[in-house]
Design goal:
The chain has about 425 residues and is an alpha/beta fold. The chain has 17 helices and 8 strands. The strands form 2 sheets. It has a 6-stranded mixed beta sheet, sandwiched between helices. A two-stranded antiparallel ribbon has the order 1-2. About 40% of the residues are buried.
Length: about 425
């Protein structure tokens, strides 16, 4: 009997979400029926999370309180709806109607990674949220009625429920993939471990010497965070851009931490970065040549760039450490681009007359686009892919990119990241030539 009622509720929930004809009597409303629906929804939530991870990992019991808090939120909303209609006997009916469509939404959510990989992740998320909201409004009218102004009060209650659930509730991964399985310790493979030494030596040996009397551009890339593949993907594009469009072939070195690129790039450690900067400085004509240094990773509020490459314990990069390395290298002319949250904290330690410092965000703001499956961060796409396709000037490209980023953030109702730029007076004159 309970299973039959559960099936009826799931079918009614699907009809509600798909905007098919539906009556309040199509739901089965009783405490056991509601409890069965909650158990089913929770089980499906766990199952879909496990499926997204390829069934590798384990159930996180800390997700149970989060789920129960969501149930409390739904019941509170149902109580407010029932109170608005003056019909407290409908409380459970409203709660069942609000919960019965969850299974369909959870199954549709399985397609979100595909939308993200195709570059439509943000749009798909907005569409899904609007769909859930409209379905919740319909649940109120089906279970409680359409009387005015009561229906407007009920709509307000469920709108607040969705907003609180999405914006205020803590995010939790109900299915947790262990660290050793999330990022397999491929460096424990002896061949790959020893290959790293060869990669950095090969990279250093490949840096060509500058030509006297001819200003040339050197590129160094540093992506120390293997937790998101967007950083290494963006690095590949940017290095190729400087080799092909800015004539820096033979004068580029990219360091990147990535589980999938350990045979392609040397690991992005502070030690390797120091070695590369020292080597580039040796090969440059320091009075003429310009270094373009690009850094991309997750950033923290204290302005450290995350360094992740299991099983290694790498130190994060700080602005003062980077400033010290650049100073010790003796590289005179430099353009530094830091694409990370809170990247504006790098400007003050790096600013001098001979430097351009560009950051994806203000010191107290986050940047966006560090999601799995993306090819670019928001700022990386705006600056390297779009703006530099229109102008070879790094400062003009920044102004263009700042506008592109602001437009995208406004369209998605995100807090502005406020990209920043410092241009030293000496290098400003030099870059005019």
């Amino acid at each position: 009997m309970i299973l039959r009622s559960l099936l009826r509720n799931l079918l009614a929930g699907a009809r509600l979400a798909l905007f098919l004809p539906l009556r309040a009597e199509d739901y089965r409303v009783s405490p056991p029926d509601y409890a069965a629906l909650l158990v089913f929804n929770f089980t499906l939530w766990v199952a879909t999370a496990a499926a997204r991870s390829g069934f590798v990992g384990e159930f996180d019991t800390s997700a149970i309180p989060i789920y129960l808090a969501g149930v409390t939120l739904v019941l509170t909303s149902a109580l407010l709806v029932a109170a608005a209609f003056g019909a407290y006997e409908r409380l459970l009916a409203v709660a069942v109607a609000l919960s019965a469509s969850d299974a369909l939404f959870e199954l549709v959510g399985l397609a979100m990674p595909l939308a993200t990989a195709a570059g439509f992740g943000s749009i798909a998320l907005v569409v899904l949220l609007v769909w859930i909201w409209v379905a919740a409004l319909r649940a109120v009218t089906v279970a409680a009625g359409t009387q005015r102004p009561q229906v407007f009060h009920g709509a307000l209650a469920v709108t607040a429920m969705i907003a609180i659930g999405f914006f205020a509730f803590p995010r939790t991964d109900v299915w947790v993939v262990p660290q050793e399985e999330t990022q397999a310790d491929v460096l424990t493979d002896e061949r790959l471990f020893h290959l790293q030494g060869q990669l950095i030596e090969r990279a250093l040996a490949g840096v060509a010497r500058g030509e006297p009397g001819k200003r040339q551009l050197y590129f160094v890339g540093f992506a120390p965070d293997s937790s998101q593949d967007v950083f290494v993907r963006e690095m590949r594009f940017v290095q190729r851009l400087f080799q092909e469009r800015f004539g820096a072939a033979g004068r580029t070195v990219a360091l990147a931490s990535s589980q999938d690129a350990l045979e392609e790039f040397p690991i992005a450690s502070i030690t390797n970065l120091g070695r590369v900067l020292a080597r580039v400085a040796e090969q440059m004509n320091r009075d003429e040549d310009v270094l373009f240094l690009y850094l991309s990773a997750h950033g923290s509020r204290d302005h450290r760039l995350a360094a992740v490459q299991p099983p290694l314990d790498l130190a994060p990069l700080t602005p003062t450490a980077l400033a010290r390395m650049l100073q010790e290298s003796g590289i005179k002319w430099r353009v530094v681009v830091v694409s990370a949250c809170y990247a504006g904290g790098y400007i003050e330690p790096l600013r001098d007359d001979n430097s351009v410092v560009i950051t994806a965000a203000a010191p107290d703001r986050v940047s966006f686009g560090c999601e799995a499956g993306r090819d670019f961060t928001y700022f990386g796409q705006a600056f390297f892919r779009d703006a530099l396709a229109q102008t070879p000037s790094f400062t003009q490209a920044f102004e263009l990119a700042k506008g592109y980023v602001a437009k995208q953030e406004a369209e998605e109702n995100l807090q502005p990241s406020l990209p920043q730029m410092w241009v030293g007076p000496a290098i400003a004159e030099r870059l005019k030539d």
